[in-house]
Amino acid sequence: MLHRLDVTEVANANLASQIKLFADGASLEDFTKLHDGGQVAGFTTNPTLMRRAGITDYEAFAQALLARIPDAPISFEVFSDAFEDMKRQALKIAAWGDNVYVKVPITNTKGESSLTMVRELAAQGVKVNVTAILTLEQVAATVEALADDVPAVISVFAGRIADTGIDPMPIMRAAVAMAARKPQAEVLWASVREVLNIYQARDCGCHIITSTPDVLKKLSMAGKDLAELSLETVAMFYDDAQAAGFQL
Protein backbone atom coordinates (compact mmCIF):
# COMPACT_ATOMS: atom_id res chain seq x y z
CA MET A 1 0.00 0.00 0.00
CA LEU A 2 1.32 3.48 -0.87
CA HIS A 3 1.92 5.99 1.90
CA ARG A 4 0.21 9.39 1.58
CA LEU A 5 3.43 11.05 0.32
CA ASP A 6 3.80 8.38 -2.33
CA VAL A 7 0.20 8.91 -3.46
CA THR A 8 0.87 12.65 -3.80
CA GLU A 9 4.06 12.11 -5.77
CA VAL A 10 2.35 9.66 -8.13
CA ALA A 11 -0.60 12.03 -8.65
CA ASN A 12 1.69 14.95 -9.46
CA ALA A 13 3.83 12.84 -11.80
CA ASN A 14 0.75 11.65 -13.67
CA LEU A 15 -0.54 15.21 -13.96
CA ALA A 16 2.79 16.47 -15.31
CA SER A 17 2.73 13.74 -17.97
CA GLN A 18 -0.70 14.93 -19.15
CA ILE A 19 -0.14 18.70 -19.30
CA LYS A 20 2.95 20.91 -19.20
CA LEU A 21 3.20 22.91 -15.99
CA PHE A 22 4.78 26.35 -16.43
CA ALA A 23 5.60 28.81 -13.65
CA ASP A 24 4.35 32.40 -13.99
CA GLY A 25 6.09 35.21 -12.13
CA ALA A 26 9.23 37.32 -11.96
CA SER A 27 11.41 35.83 -9.23
CA LEU A 28 14.86 34.50 -10.06
CA GLU A 29 14.89 32.53 -6.83
CA ASP A 30 11.46 30.92 -7.29
CA PHE A 31 12.12 30.10 -10.93
CA THR A 32 15.55 28.63 -10.22
CA LYS A 33 14.20 26.45 -7.41
CA LEU A 34 11.35 25.16 -9.57
CA HIS A 35 13.70 24.49 -12.48
CA ASP A 36 16.38 22.76 -10.42
CA GLY A 37 13.73 20.63 -8.72
CA GLY A 38 12.24 19.56 -12.04
CA GLN A 39 8.80 20.74 -10.93
CA VAL A 40 7.90 22.67 -14.08
CA ALA A 41 8.57 22.44 -17.81
CA GLY A 42 8.79 26.15 -18.61
CA PHE A 43 8.27 29.73 -17.47
CA THR A 44 6.29 32.86 -18.34
CA THR A 45 6.48 36.45 -17.17
CA ASN A 46 5.08 39.83 -18.17
CA PRO A 47 5.72 43.54 -17.49
CA THR A 48 3.10 43.69 -14.72
CA LEU A 49 4.64 40.81 -12.79
CA MET A 50 8.11 42.26 -13.27
CA ARG A 51 7.02 45.68 -12.01
CA ARG A 52 5.39 44.13 -8.94
CA ALA A 53 8.65 42.29 -8.25
CA GLY A 54 10.53 45.60 -8.28
CA ILE A 55 12.44 44.90 -11.49
CA THR A 56 13.65 48.10 -13.17
CA ASP A 57 16.07 46.72 -15.78
CA TYR A 58 14.07 44.47 -18.12
CA GLU A 59 16.97 43.07 -20.14
CA ALA A 60 19.24 42.53 -17.13
CA PHE A 61 16.53 40.46 -15.44
CA ALA A 62 15.91 38.46 -18.62
CA GLN A 63 19.59 37.73 -19.16
CA ALA A 64 20.05 36.69 -15.53
CA LEU A 65 17.08 34.33 -15.81
CA LEU A 66 18.34 32.83 -19.08
CA ALA A 67 21.78 32.29 -17.55
CA ARG A 68 20.15 30.20 -14.83
CA ILE A 69 17.64 28.46 -17.10
CA PRO A 70 19.07 27.97 -20.61
CA ASP A 71 17.21 24.75 -21.38
CA ALA A 72 13.48 25.37 -20.76
CA PRO A 73 11.03 27.58 -22.68
CA ILE A 74 10.69 31.09 -21.25
CA SER A 75 8.26 33.71 -22.54
CA PHE A 76 9.20 37.40 -22.36
CA GLU A 77 6.68 40.03 -23.43
CA VAL A 78 7.11 43.07 -25.66
CA PHE A 79 5.87 46.29 -24.06
CA SER A 80 5.70 48.90 -26.83
CA ASP A 81 2.29 50.00 -28.09
CA ALA A 82 3.47 50.84 -31.61
CA PHE A 83 3.73 47.86 -33.93
CA GLU A 84 7.01 48.79 -35.61
CA ASP A 85 8.69 49.22 -32.25
CA MET A 86 6.93 46.14 -30.93
CA LYS A 87 8.43 44.14 -33.79
CA ARG A 88 11.89 45.56 -33.07
CA GLN A 89 11.56 44.50 -29.44
CA ALA A 90 10.29 41.06 -30.48
CA LEU A 91 13.28 40.41 -32.74
CA LYS A 92 15.68 41.54 -30.03
CA ILE A 93 14.06 39.31 -27.41
CA ALA A 94 13.97 36.32 -29.77
CA ALA A 95 17.73 36.63 -30.30
CA TRP A 96 18.39 36.05 -26.59
CA GLY A 97 18.16 32.26 -26.91
CA ASP A 98 16.65 29.25 -28.64
CA ASN A 99 14.45 28.63 -25.62
CA VAL A 100 12.90 32.11 -25.77
CA TYR A 101 9.31 32.74 -26.81
CA VAL A 102 8.16 36.30 -27.49
CA LYS A 103 4.86 37.24 -25.89
CA VAL A 104 2.80 39.54 -28.08
CA PRO A 105 -0.57 40.89 -26.87
CA ILE A 106 -3.46 40.13 -29.20
CA THR A 107 -4.02 43.90 -29.69
CA ASN A 108 -2.36 47.14 -28.69
CA THR A 109 -4.04 49.52 -26.23
CA LYS A 110 -6.07 51.06 -29.08
CA GLY A 111 -7.66 47.70 -29.86
CA GLU A 112 -5.74 47.35 -33.12
CA SER A 113 -4.90 43.73 -33.98
CA SER A 114 -1.31 42.59 -33.56
CA LEU A 115 -1.76 39.61 -35.85
CA THR A 116 -0.26 41.11 -39.01
CA MET A 117 2.95 41.56 -37.04
CA VAL A 118 2.59 38.09 -35.49
CA ARG A 119 2.35 36.62 -39.00
CA GLU A 120 5.55 38.45 -40.01
CA LEU A 121 7.40 37.28 -36.90
CA ALA A 122 6.29 33.68 -37.33
CA ALA A 123 7.37 33.77 -40.98
CA GLN A 124 10.84 34.81 -39.76
CA GLY A 125 10.99 31.83 -37.42
CA VAL A 126 10.25 33.69 -34.20
CA LYS A 127 8.54 31.57 -31.55
CA VAL A 128 5.58 33.71 -30.52
CA ASN A 129 3.28 33.47 -27.53
CA VAL A 130 0.16 35.42 -28.40
CA THR A 131 -1.29 36.58 -25.10
CA ALA A 132 -4.31 38.29 -23.48
CA ILE A 133 -6.72 36.24 -25.64
CA LEU A 134 -10.26 35.91 -24.28
CA THR A 135 -12.52 35.10 -27.26
CA LEU A 136 -12.73 32.29 -29.76
CA GLU A 137 -12.68 34.84 -32.56
CA GLN A 138 -9.25 35.90 -31.33
CA VAL A 139 -8.14 32.26 -31.14
CA ALA A 140 -9.26 31.56 -34.71
CA ALA A 141 -7.49 34.64 -36.07
CA THR A 142 -4.32 33.76 -34.15
CA VAL A 143 -4.26 30.24 -35.54
CA GLU A 144 -4.48 31.68 -39.06
CA ALA A 145 -1.51 33.97 -38.39
CA LEU A 146 0.84 31.25 -37.13
CA ALA A 147 3.32 29.35 -39.26
CA ASP A 148 2.90 25.61 -39.75
CA ASP A 149 6.50 24.78 -38.89
CA VAL A 150 7.38 27.23 -36.09
CA PRO A 151 6.52 26.51 -32.43
CA ALA A 152 3.98 28.93 -30.97
CA VAL A 153 1.78 29.36 -27.91
CA ILE A 154 -1.80 30.62 -27.81
CA SER A 155 -2.42 32.00 -24.32
CA VAL A 156 -6.11 32.13 -23.42
CA PHE A 157 -6.89 33.88 -20.13
CA ALA A 158 -9.33 31.31 -18.80
CA GLY A 159 -9.18 32.74 -15.28
CA ARG A 160 -10.30 36.15 -16.47
CA ILE A 161 -13.08 34.56 -18.50
CA ALA A 162 -14.25 32.81 -15.31
CA ASP A 163 -14.07 36.12 -13.43
CA THR A 164 -16.87 37.42 -15.68
CA GLY A 165 -19.12 34.53 -14.66
CA ILE A 166 -18.58 32.52 -17.87
CA ASP A 167 -17.46 28.90 -17.72
CA PRO A 168 -14.13 28.88 -19.59
CA MET A 169 -14.01 25.13 -20.23
CA PRO A 170 -16.13 25.06 -23.43
CA ILE A 171 -14.03 27.95 -24.78
CA MET A 172 -10.79 26.16 -23.94
CA ARG A 173 -11.94 22.91 -25.56
CA ALA A 174 -12.88 24.81 -28.71
CA ALA A 175 -9.53 26.64 -28.67
CA VAL A 176 -7.65 23.32 -28.53
CA ALA A 177 -9.69 22.03 -31.48
CA MET A 178 -8.95 25.17 -33.50
CA ALA A 179 -5.23 25.06 -32.73
CA ALA A 180 -4.97 21.49 -34.04
CA ARG A 181 -4.77 22.97 -37.55
CA LYS A 182 -1.24 24.16 -36.74
CA PRO A 183 0.90 21.20 -35.59
CA GLN A 184 3.44 23.38 -33.76
CA ALA A 185 0.86 25.45 -31.87
CA GLU A 186 0.06 24.84 -28.21
CA VAL A 187 -2.85 26.21 -26.19
CA LEU A 188 -1.98 27.63 -22.78
CA TRP A 189 -4.49 28.10 -19.94
CA ALA A 190 -3.53 31.43 -18.37
CA SER A 191 -4.56 33.45 -15.28
CA VAL A 192 -4.84 30.48 -12.93
CA ARG A 193 -6.85 31.06 -9.77
CA GLU A 194 -6.64 27.69 -7.98
CA VAL A 195 -5.26 24.15 -8.25
CA LEU A 196 -8.56 22.92 -9.71
CA ASN A 197 -7.78 24.97 -12.84
CA ILE A 198 -4.79 22.71 -13.55
CA TYR A 199 -7.04 19.66 -13.68
CA GLN A 200 -9.64 21.56 -15.72
CA ALA A 201 -6.97 22.59 -18.22
CA ARG A 202 -5.82 18.99 -18.54
CA ASP A 203 -9.39 17.78 -19.06
CA CYS A 204 -9.90 20.38 -21.81
CA GLY A 205 -6.86 19.07 -23.66
CA CYS A 206 -4.75 22.18 -23.11
CA HIS A 207 -1.08 21.62 -23.79
CA ILE A 208 0.22 24.03 -21.12
CA ILE A 209 -0.95 25.76 -17.98
CA THR A 210 1.04 28.55 -16.37
CA SER A 211 0.62 29.15 -12.68
CA THR A 212 2.14 31.15 -9.87
CA PRO A 213 4.58 29.35 -7.56
CA ASP A 214 2.07 29.72 -4.72
CA VAL A 215 -0.54 27.68 -6.60
CA LEU A 216 2.04 25.13 -7.73
CA LYS A 217 3.01 24.57 -4.09
CA LYS A 218 -0.58 23.52 -3.36
CA LEU A 219 -0.18 20.56 -5.71
CA SER A 220 1.32 18.78 -2.71
CA MET A 221 -2.29 18.44 -1.49
CA ALA A 222 -3.24 16.21 -4.42
CA GLY A 223 -4.98 13.07 -3.19
CA LYS A 224 -5.16 14.34 0.39
CA ASP A 225 -7.92 12.84 2.53
CA LEU A 226 -10.59 15.53 3.07
CA ALA A 227 -11.37 14.46 6.64
CA GLU A 228 -7.67 14.74 7.45
CA LEU A 229 -7.54 18.16 5.81
CA SER A 230 -10.56 19.25 7.86
CA LEU A 231 -8.78 18.28 11.08
CA GLU A 232 -5.63 20.13 10.01
CA THR A 233 -7.73 23.24 9.32
CA VAL A 234 -9.35 23.12 12.77
CA ALA A 235 -5.89 22.70 14.35
CA MET A 236 -4.64 25.71 12.39
CA PHE A 237 -7.46 27.90 13.74
CA TYR A 238 -6.79 26.69 17.29
CA ASP A 239 -3.01 27.18 17.10
CA ASP A 240 -3.38 30.68 15.68
CA ALA A 241 -5.85 31.69 18.38
CA GLN A 242 -3.46 30.44 21.07
CA ALA A 243 -0.48 32.17 19.45
CA ALA A 244 -2.43 35.44 19.30
CA GLY A 245 -3.36 35.18 22.98
CA PHE A 246 -7.04 35.76 22.31
CA GLN A 247 -9.28 35.97 25.41
CA LEU A 248 -13.06 36.23 25.83
Helix-strand layout with pairing:
Layout: H1 4-18, E1 20-24, H2 28-36, E2 42-44, H3 47-52, H4 58-68, E3 74-77, H5 83-94, E4 100-105, H6 115-123, E5 128-133, H7 136-145, E6 152-156, H8 158-163, H9 169-179, E7 185-189, H10 195-204, E8 208-211, H11 213-217, H12 226-244
Parallel strand pairs: 1-2, 1-8, 2-3, 3-4, 4-5, 5-6, 6-7, 7-8
Properties at a glance:
single chain, TIM Barrel, disordered N terminus, eight-stranded parallel barrel, globular, 248 residues
The CATH topology:
TIM Barrel
The H/E string reads HEHEHHEHEHEHEHHEHEHH
Discrete helix count: 12
CATH class: Alpha Beta
What is the terminal-to-terminal distance?
46 Å
Q: Helicity, in percent?
A: 40-55%
Please describe what this structure looks like.
- The chain is α/β, with parallel strands linked by helices.
- The chain has a single domain, classed as Aldolase class I (TIM Barrel), CATH 3.20.20.70.
- The protein has twelve helices and eight strands.
- The chain has an eight-stranded parallel β-barrel with strand order 1-2-3-4-5-6-7-8, surrounded by seven helices.
- The chain is globular and about 65 Å long.
- The termini are far apart.
